[in-house]
Amino acid sequence: MKKTGFIAVATAVTLLAGTASAATLDDVRAKGFIQCGVTTGLAGFAAPNDKGVWEGFDVDICRAMSSAIFGDPDKVKYTPTTAKERFTALQSGEIDVLARNTTWTLSRDVNLGFEFVGVNYYDGQGFMVKKSLGVKSAKELDGARVCIQSGTTTELNLADYFAANGMKYDSVLFDTSDEVREAYIKDTCDVYTTDQSGLYSQRSVLADPENHVVLPEIISKEPLGPLVRHGDNAWGDIARWTLNALIIAEELGINSSNVDEMKSSKNPEIARLLGTSGDLGSQLGLGPEWAANAIKQVGNYGEIFEKHLGAGTPLNIARGLNQLWSKGGILYAPPAR
Amino acid sequence: MAIVKTERHPELPPPVSQTGVIGWLRQNLFSNWWNTILTLVSLYVVWEAMSALIGYTIINANFAGTTREDCTGTGACWVFIKARFGQNMYGFYPEAERWRINVGYVLGAVGLFLVLSDVIKDKKWPAVFLFVVYPILCYFLFYGGFGLPKVETSEWGGLFLTLVLASVSIFVALPLGIVLALGRRSDMPVVRMVCVGFIELIRGVPLITVLFMASVMLPLFLPEGMNFDKLIRALVGMSLFSAAYMAEVIRGGLQAIPKGQMEAAKSLGLGYWQAMGLIILPQALKISIPAIVNTFIGLFKDTTLVIIIGLLDLLSVIKSGTTDKNWLGLATEGYVFVAAVFWVFCFGMSRYSIWLENKLHTGHKR
């Protein structure tokens, strides 16, 4: 708490010291690329491929923004950030946007002086058990030995959940996720708990992924989304509506392969989004093709999800909450009009 | 009639049980039942450990191929290291420009060899090359300039970044450490207090804190949009940190030199700097060699801490690689490879220091 207070004070000092650089969009256009903060490596979300190019679900948010602004998805430079220094990097202007599986919370939004532009992945803490255990629900886990990575909010959530349901558990703590996985394999514990996206990626590296099941319960809300600095709302709007455009595109059935045909669509919603009618692009300070470019060059939300996290990847994450609202999920973007 | 042998009996070789391999074994490994048991148990442990290690790293390992699917054996998947070898060595440095790093390596190796080995007796020019020309050359080679395209330091990574961090810190730490050590023993109160304050402040905090301050706190106090390069921040932090440790190591060496040496130097009419440079420091540095190299080795390994400020050195670039969804679950291979690389460098430094000690030993050896 003390630390956040200090950062807040420091931020205030910074804001007083540097009133310039209000228009991030102009800066970005002038330097010719977006400086995008990503993780130092999280399977499916951001990782360098064999060629040294960053790839992943979070990375594609930055690429979509680059398409919307420059009409080219590769005008992005990536700054790998750790959990500890990601916020400073954004506050100090080292990066323009942080797309790094960051949970949207009140204190981060308000106290740290950031603007979360939306949610690109609804995550939450879940449980993984061996199928042979025959457990179907987290409510049946009374007396279980639970493997956890120490020093994360996971521990607190777990204690709360078990206390609220009147159940007992033994926690087995480890320092890194690799150690937790080894312990889980060696039956040191019955249950592996962490964020569901993490469970899926851990499951994918087990020798026998089909013998393990991620239980349906989610015991905490972890909405992950990209964020920008307070104080430049125009830049925040671009980030927000690029993300929204990708979701709307999936809703309207526009994808990277049919976007050009869709431009002649009679549907006024599609015409507005793709820039064949109306002036949504210029309202954002971008060209009329902003959304069309992002969809064509990067893909709609569903395509991005399938490419990096979906069934075709080793991660094999189900859409779950991240399905469109019209298909049983909670993904809901305000209309583009 | 006396039965007296007139010629000498020919000398027989010592019994088989006393010489050669068997003799050595009997004497050292099987001299009594207790040692025999110990030997057998140890052999069993070594055999178990080594067969598992060799089985994992060589016999059952996969070397051929380009993708994860080529790893079918139960052992290590070296394909992972091979497929990303360029990235592990050079980070995100553009492939077309990597020859620049190699040229830097070759020049550095030549310079180091000339300065450190005994091939050339007069080391003045090699030293000028290595300590003055080479760093300037490297700056332009690695960063760009004089017609070479600019490569941002954010694209540096892998073993290259580790070596840059280690060598710059070593290069700065040794002279700065000598100055600090002399300052701490100075008669001038202000100089002494500044040096003591600096050393104790830096030694009082962990390296991770220094790096964290340089990377997280410093930008908060600078106006928005004004940023020092992340690598420079890390380099400054690491150099100052190791200089503080170096100062204490060298102070230990200085204190071991009897007072009479300085008095003798002064009675010959030498001034402070002459006495230091010609009499005291050569002796003090010589007896500090093991501790200095110890600090260097520690520093080399500490470079891995730069991950906390988001610089991808050898260890962290491999860790990032293990999160590529095409290469999930290969952390062990990564760590084994990094351990092997670090061992080669640290062992090399350690062997050089032993060689140097033997070369410089002039009768004080205990």
Structural descriptors:
heterodimer; A: 337 residues; alpha/beta; five-stranded mixed beta sheet; three-stranded parallel beta sheet; 17% strand; disordered N terminus; B: 366 residues; mainly alpha; MetI-like fold; 2 domains; 14 helices; 0% strand; globular
How would you concisely characterize the structure shown here?
Chain A contains 14 helices and 14 strands.
Structure description:
The complex is a heterodimer of chains A (337) and B (366). With 337 residues, chain A is of the alpha/beta class. Helix content of chain A is 39%, strand content 17%. Chain A has 14 helices and 14 strands. In chain A, the strands form 5 sheets. Chain A has a 5-stranded mixed sheet. In chain A, strands 4-1-5 form a 3-stranded parallel sheet. In chain A, strands 2-3 form a two-stranded antiparallel sheet. The longest helix of chain A is centred in the last third of the chain and has 20 residues, at 233-252. Chain B has 366 residues and is mainly α. Chain B folds into 2 domains: 94-150; 157-359, MetI-like (MetI-like fold). Chain B has helices spanning 20-28, 33-59, 78-83, 85-90, 98-116, 124-143, 158-184, 189-203, 207-221, 230-256, 259-267, 272-302, 314-321, 331-360. The longest helix of chain B has 31 residues, at 272-302. Chain B is globular. The model of chain B has no long low-confidence stretch (mean pLDDT 88). Chains A and B meet through helix 1, strand 2, strand 4 and helix 4 of A and helix 9 and helix 13 of B.
